[in-house]
Amino acid sequence: MRVSRRSLALVLATGAIAATGGIALWVGTSDEVVSPAPSSPGTGSSPGETGAETTSLASTTPRSTPVPILMYHVIADPPASTPFPELWVRPRDFAGQMRWLKLAGFHPVTLRAVWEHWNRGLAMPKRPIVISFDDGYRSHVRTAMPILAQRAWPGVLNLKVGTLGPESLQARGVRRLIAAGWEIDAHSITHPDLTTVDNVRLEHEVAGSRRAIRRMFDVPVDFFCYPAGRYDERVIEAVRRAGFFGATTTEYGLARPSEPFSLDRVRVSRTDGVAGFAAKLRAMAPRLGANP
């Protein structure tokens, strides 16, 4: 049985954060800087339509090149009562991190664009990177989206369907993300430890989340994000059976084409700031074929 190393405590993180009200609405503009295909079956647009920079740059990236997938949660200052403050990134730090990516020559793309490059040879810019956000919070729309939109960059929302509601992210907010070029992927319905649920519940959380998102937003939903990074061979098989092309984990590292259903990511934590963020990506530079 293959199970993520990430602690089971993170299974509770989403619910704990969602229970705290008043997500910050301020959009950060910090200048803090450290130097530097065909559509999915059913609905939606082709991956080439997402991300202006991706489609305008000739690809010089080998098809086997690993790609960093950043993992964010809430883009806001955490309330004092939150049990997982590391999952909250300050708006000013997020803005500074995005500016550093720009100066370092990274080009954000969708996960579908990466898959198309790996599997079908579609063009990919130098230093591609995926900026993903887990669960679904108002700060993704009100803070992260405007910062990315300044550079016409797409994000990837791993949507927990149960998050949608008047006290959190609403459907109209997801539609705004889609209009801004974001990719929407599935992150289950209620965020359970999928390795512990029975087969009926597993199908509901995995295939059911894909069906729900496609029905609500009429978009392809081609990738799954394991809640709290918990998965094993049974969970992987359920994800395959549901029609997903791949899945992301909470394992630290670069995503590789040889492991589409266990794609590593780079967690961005509250204490990273811009300097720590830059250090993480610099440490990966030899494996990226880059020197930011």
CATH class: Alpha Beta
CATH topology title? TIM Barrel
Oligomer: single chain
Largest sheet: 8 strands, parallel
Number of strands: 10
**Count of folded domains:** 1
The CATH architecture name reads: Alpha-Beta Barrel
Short note summarizing the structure:
The chain has nine helices and ten strands. The chain has helices at 13-18, 52-56, 91-103, 111-120, 138-149, 171-179, 199-217, 233-241, 273-288, and strands at 69-72, 74-75, 88-89, 107-108, 128-135, 156-159, 183-186, 223-225, 246-252, 263-267.
Give the key terms.
single chain, 292 residues, alpha/beta, TIM Barrel, two-stranded parallel ribbon, 9 helices, disordered N terminus
Structural account:
The chain has 292 residues and is α/β, with parallel strands linked by helices. It has one domain (70-288): TIM Barrel (Alpha-Beta Barrel), CATH 3.20.20.370. The strands form 2 sheets. Strands 1, 4, 5, 6, 7, 8, 9 and 10 form an 8-stranded parallel β-sheet that branches. Strands 2-3 form a two-stranded parallel ribbon. The longest helix is centred in the C-terminal third of the chain and has 19 residues, at 199-217. It has helices at 13-18, 52-56, 91-103, 111-120, 138-149, 171-179, 199-217, 233-241, 273-288, and strands at 69-72, 74-75, 88-89, 107-108, 128-135, 156-159, 183-186, 223-225, 246-252, 263-267. The chain is globular and about 45 Å long. Helix 4 links the parallel strand 4 (107-108) and strand 5 (128-135). Helix 3 runs parallel beside helix 5 (138-149). Residues 3-58 have low confidence and may be disordered.
